[in-house]
UniProtKB/TrEMBL annotation:
Domain B box-type positions: 148-188
Source taxonomy: Eukaryota, Metazoa, Chordata, Craniata, Vertebrata
Stretches of the chain forming a coiled coil according to its record: 261-295
Gene from which the chain derives: LOC107698478
Alphabetical GO biological process terms: innate immune response
Gene Ontology MF term list: zinc ion binding
Record has Zinc-finger as a keyword: yes
UniProt keyword list: Coiled coil, Immunity, Innate immunity, Metal-binding, Zinc, Zinc-finger
PROSITE patterns documented for this protein: B302_SPRY, ZF_BBOX, ZF_RING_1, ZF_RING_2
Domain RING-type: from-to ranges: 19-62
Cellular component, GO annotation: cytoplasm
Name of the protein in its database record: Tripartite motif-containing protein 16-like protein
InterPro entries per UniProt: B30.2/SPRY, B30.2/SPRY_sf, Butyrophylin_SPRY, ConA-like_dom_sf, E3_ubiq-ligase_TRIM/RNF, PRY, SPRY_dom, TRIM8/14/16/25/29/45/65_CC
Amino acid sequence: MWRNMTEASISLGEDQFSCPICQDLLKDPVTIPCGHSYCMNCITDCWNKDDQKGVYSCPQCRQTFTPRPALNKNVMLDEMVEKLKKTRSALSYAGPGDEECDVCTGRKRKAVKSCLMCLESYCQTHFECHEESHTRKRHKVTDATGRIQEMICSKHDRLLEVFCRSDQKCICLICVMDEHKTHDTVSAEAERTEKQKQVGETVIIIQKKIQERQTELQKLSEFVQTHKSSAQAAVEDSERIFTELIHCIEKSQSEVIQMIRDREKAEVSQAEGLLKQLEQEIDDLRRDAELKQLLHTENHIHFLERFQSLSVPPAARDNINVTSLLSYDDVDESVSMLREKLEDLCKEATENIYVIPHMEIVTTSELRTRDEFLQYSCQLTLDPNTAHKYLCLTEGNRVATFIGADQQYPVHPDRFHGFSQVLCRESVCGRCYWEVEWSGMAGVGISVSYKSISRKGGGFECVFGFNNQSWRLSCSDSRCAFRHNQKTIKLPIFYSSSRIGVYVDHRAGILSFYRVSDTMTLIHRIQTTFTQPLYPGFGINFGSTLKLSSAEIL
């Protein structure tokens, strides 16, 4: 009976606090002199239409007012409306996916609380009644989430309030005394507390990883932006330089063409002058017709008078010999030679474009932390039979220093003669990792090499990184570069750590160099095919020292 009365009072309240004009709950309610109440905006708009008449009336009872009454907000009524709004919100009907009130009859309202002892869900009104009926001993309640059936044991229809650690599931008290009586059980609340700690630790780890990724993202974004800016600047410079080069070539083309035309003009002009002379000479020599006519004249006087002018032959001129046509083969040859040189220069310049400082981005997730690399660490020692005579080996052949004085090593075919280099005794195969520390302004070369690398002589065949037998990372205070087979890749200089980690995966053909500090920072990485066992090797420059580090100590 109290349920129906509550619902009826709610319905009555909504009608009593509705605006007769807009039919909705009063908003900024005002009460006019006749006692009826309206929304402030509704009655204002209604009376604005009566301004010309000067007489204002109540839309419900039609009582008139003159002059226009002043409108003031009814504070008490406004508070009652706000309370009604909250009650109406709490007593809204359940929709799809909402937990329904188990007490409501007819159309059910949305549940707001669930009782874990009564195993029922309640709307706001019925929850208040539930609380009033259990004032002496409060029941345990929770927010209605639509999952109350999941909190009930399907076998015993009792509340799940115990956690079985043996089976990793929630059970009821009867289950504890039945099939789980020998299992490790705790209260669900205690297990929740324990699991919540683990979740908290997981959240901390995830947050840390998010921060790490955000840092990496920022660095990568900065690198991308810097790379884009550098690339754009390089494009603009290249366009400018190539434009200048094209103009230079066009200028040379014009000069060559003008030279050919000038030469053509001079030679043709000379030839045309000779042509005119020859034509004149031919004209002069064509007097034989007059001579023949003179021979047949019978007038002796006329013959004698013409004889003087016709009997003297024209003056003899040098013969003109045209040995060959004028040739421009020398010009063609010079221009062709220029083209070949330009092509060679362009090809060389294009190849050099790829030898620029760059950053390598590694996306592999196999090895990231130093601890992961250390599982592949190997112990190395320097082989004194390979050490150059100016290298002094100490600390059990784990430190090499360039001394500059002959160490009087015995003659050995494995010794490097022309360059201050040394190999390790041990070869590396499979996955191997080692660390070195270096010092000295001139720097060192950290390498891997086939054992077949040449030892005698002063050619590139003996130098780490300058042949197809070895790979080398060169480090100094002024530069950092990777070398293989006489090809060089310039790398960013790093100053914060003098410890370098080297990782080799022989089967995968991977060689990586890392800067070792609190984190592992990739310096350079290549992937190739190794056809022989690899030996760590080192080149030590003047005044520099290299030490094979104990990988576990940082």
